[in-house]
Amino acid sequence: MRRTARRMRRAGVNPVMYVDDDIDFGGIAFSAIVHFLWRYRSELAPIWVMVSCEALALALHLQYPDSWTRVPVVSAVLTLAILLGGRWLGLRLALERAYGALISVSVGVWLTFAAKLGPGKPPLPAFLLIAGLVLAIPWWVHRRRRARVRVERTLAAWPEISSAIEMVGSRVQSAIVDPWGYRARIKLARGHTVEQAIAKTAEIESALGTRRGAVRILPVAEKANRMDLRVIENDPHANSLVWPGPSITSIKDQIELGLFEDGSPILVSLLRRHALVGGIAGSGKSGGLNAIIGNLSACEDVVLWGIDLKRGMELMPWASCFDRIATDAREAELLLNDAVRILDHKAELLAKRGERLAVPSREEPALIVVIDEFAELAEESPNSVAGTDSIARRGRAPGTQLVLATQRPSQSAMGGSSVRSQMDIRLCFRVREKRDADLTLGAGMHKAGWHADRLDAPGKFFISAPGHDYPRRGRAYLLSDEIVQQTASAHSAGMRTIQPPPQPAATANPDGELSDGPSKDVDRSPVSSGEKQARGAHRRSQRPLELCLRDAPADGASISDLLRMTGMGRTTLHNHLKALERAGRARRVGRGRWAPARQGDDCG
């Protein structure tokens, strides 16, 4: 009747009731009173408890006058059960269990006296009324109780809502209230799918009266005709999430990138997987990349190489954790060529051992190449695209992986290669257009509910990866500049390095043709004077570096200090340091710290 009246009012028709002498006001009044008592049963619960206590006390006093001695025992047992097992009764908080125990003690004391003296004996009625009203105040103001009642009344109108959004036949099976809103399990009508419900998200928000973007619809894996309807009333991601520190020490573990809206951690494994991070400028893409680097830098079975064509603006704060960082197109091309050589060398080792997959370890770490703004690399260094394409296609098994970040991973931005199709882990931060979500996450993902264009704060993102097959919004941890510096300093001591295999030298055979590697049939000629001059110039260029190392403190000089004192580029400095190390004139004393060789060391 009330539902029909609401429909008439929405249609602009005012309901009219005709009253005559034959109407049964008694039945109408009884129905209205019962409906009122049922609708407000939660608010009236303390009144029902007081009435029940009065009736029980009267029955005990008249029928069992000696029962007052057993009431305290029952009350004590009930109080103890609430304190110890209240969690299984729905009293999750200690304060809630204490409130339940207080109610049990108060009722037990009052019933003891009422059963012996009678419930009408003064001052027992006054005490029941005053104590009942005082103890009812926490119940009436309890936030979760009020939220649960409000949700029940909202979902009670689901039959009408389902009719308005063309989902007739669906019904609510259960509902749970949490600190951020509520979620309900909906059984769909026969022939309806979750995808159809996702397409009606805006209509559901309007029907429930929520704010825009508050409704989430998730499928239930066990049942195709079930869905979880989640309403976010208080955004758990309204504030930034401070990074708690690295969650792994090996790449074989799962990285924690942030938190989902229900408070559960966002866990993903990077073992033998390439990753793509996309999103417009200011979407928090760099924060997600920092969360990945911060975890990988703590792994003892990972070597990090980086390419940052913004002159190192993003990756240079992590320089002490990277074995190599390229900041221009030429260095990037050399770095990727070396990475491909390492990939080939690892593949050869696996073939010799009869193995198919490399297992990263401290002795044979995985190589991960982090590339920030990949579109710039494809534009400034087209020759580098072949290297990234080769790593993307062949690097999974040998343990050579890519982590790419770009604003819009279109085919042209990716250099026309197949790199994007090889990305198994995809993080999509806020985008401007719907089709950009499909570019990052895959074709048709926006239509399936991955609405990255509706993300409303930096750091919020969708993740598509094995184990993350449904659209769930998350927020990445935020690493401030201070946290990055502290983390890089803490992890610099454990930095791992990896050397590309030597390239075979081109030598001439007796016929005058060039061949790879030395020929046993050709005698070695003496070193020419030009080669001697070149070697002397090379050693003279190393002289300033050796002087800086000689003046280094006992714990060695850091890479940043050597860069500042010598004026060399990072790649040049690393090449000279490795040459001095091979020659026995320098030694590594820690992660990113170098010192002159000891007096007793071999000089090669």
Automatic annotation (TrEMBL):
The terms under GO molecular function for this entry are: ATP binding; DNA binding
From the Swiss-Prot or TrEMBL record, give the protein name: S-DNA-T family DNA segregation ATPase FtsK/SpoIIIE
Q: Tell me the InterPro entries matching this sequence.
A: FtsK/SpoIIIE/SftA, FtsK_dom, P-loop_NTPase, WH_DNA-bd_sf
Q: Which UniProt keywords apply?
A: ATP-binding, Membrane, Nucleotide-binding, Transmembrane, Transmembrane helix
Q: Which Gene3D superfamilies match?
A: P-loop containing nucleotide triphosphate hydrolases (3.40.50.300)
Lineage of producing organism:
Bacteria, Bacillati, Actinomycetota, Actinomycetes, Streptosporangiales
User: From which source organism is this entry?
Assistant: Nonomuraea endophytica
Residues annotated as transmembrane: 44-62, 68-86, 98-118, 124-141
- The annotated region (Disordered) lies at 488-549, 584-604
Where along the chain is ATP bound?
A: 279-286
State if Membrane is listed as a keyword.
yes
> Where is the FtsK domain positioned along the sequence?
263-438
